[in-house]
Sequence to fold (359 residues):
Amino acid sequence: MIEVTNLVKHYGDKKAVNDISFFIDEGEVVGFLGPNGAGKSTTMNIVTGYLSATSGSVKVAGIDILEDPIPAKKRLGYLPENPPLYFDMTVKEYLNFIYELKGCRGTAKEREKHIGNICEIVGIDNVFGRMTRNLSKGYKQRVGLAQALVGDPDVLILDEPTVGLDPIQIIEIRNVIKDLGKKRTVILSSHILSEIQQICGRVLVINKGRLIADDTPENLARTVESERRYNLRVTGNPEMIVSVLKNIDGMKSVTPQGSKEFGSTDYLIVSRENEDVRQKIFLSLEKANLPVLQLTPVGATLEDIFIKLTGQRVTEDEGRAGRVRRSRKKEAAGDVNSSLNLSDEAKSADKKAKRGNKG
Ligand SMILES: Nc1ncnc2c1ncn2[C@@H]1O[C@H](COP(=O)(O)OP(=O)(O)OP(=O)(O)O)[C@@H](O)[C@H]1O
Ligand SMILES: [Mg+2]
Fold:
């Protein structure tokens, strides 16, 4: 359905997209995951024909987006990073305008029905008569999603569709996208791994303009979560707690997180790869008369994925967007100093990273 081949985009001497290729089949829901400045929006802008590439090609349903843009674009609905609203129009006027702009040719009744359906799907019936300028950020985002659906395209490209929404709206819009994905091909971008896990069957990880992973979210999370992490809350003397935890077989690190509930202390627990230390934690602490109040798994973050995939830590600073610096174990030692053991492992990983740096 979407075939991207050796895509390259330069902005001056900056390579925003660096030789990206992928194929997305009909009906797939695919997430672009990557830090700020990775090249997600640039790739989407090229796929939708909004920007031209420096080199490489994009085909939508077999049609080259640059050579034959009109039929290719007819298949696409695009929600760009900033919803393209005309602020002097009401939502009704705007969606009718988009209907014409996209060359849809229904009768007045068909048009009304089509736009009415879309408004119901994205939940904007209640603001239909309002000026788009006066809508809240979340509702502007919804109207942006609505315009992408006009003409019922079979491919949807959504650049960070849940940004700026409140938690309830986020859940609603994720469900809307999941639903839309049942009958359409969808590409969406996000910084949030869990969001992509919930919506997408496949994830493309982009970093510094390159595609660094292409897998199911489950596989990706599994690679990263081979060492398991938990938040632990225990009642009792912190020194005793640490000394018990330290002696548990399979434990990689224990990092105190302070007290969030009277009489108890929280710890971030990391087990060694493929070790499940949960039972040992409960039994050892129970034996020492130190009651466990909570043990909660901590999911992999985008940061974890990047460290695992690239051996690098992501800097999200806008000025140096997309740049990454070597994972400095010293920083990780922010945890490790106050945690247990690991110094040898940390040293050898650091040496490895330095060797990689030279190479
Ligand atoms: N019009 C432009 N002119 C010059 N550089 C640009 C332009 N647009 C993007 N860039 C640069 O290209 C790189 C990729 O940007 P892009 O917007 O594609 O990243 P992104 O992955 O969408 O990031 P974010 O998560 O912040 O939205 C960045 O370094 C950015 O600064
Ligand atoms: Mg972007």
User: Anything to note?
Assistant: The chain has two domains: 2-223, 226-298+328-359. The chain is about 40% helix and 25% strand. The domain at 2-223 is CATH 3.40.50.300 (Rossmann fold).
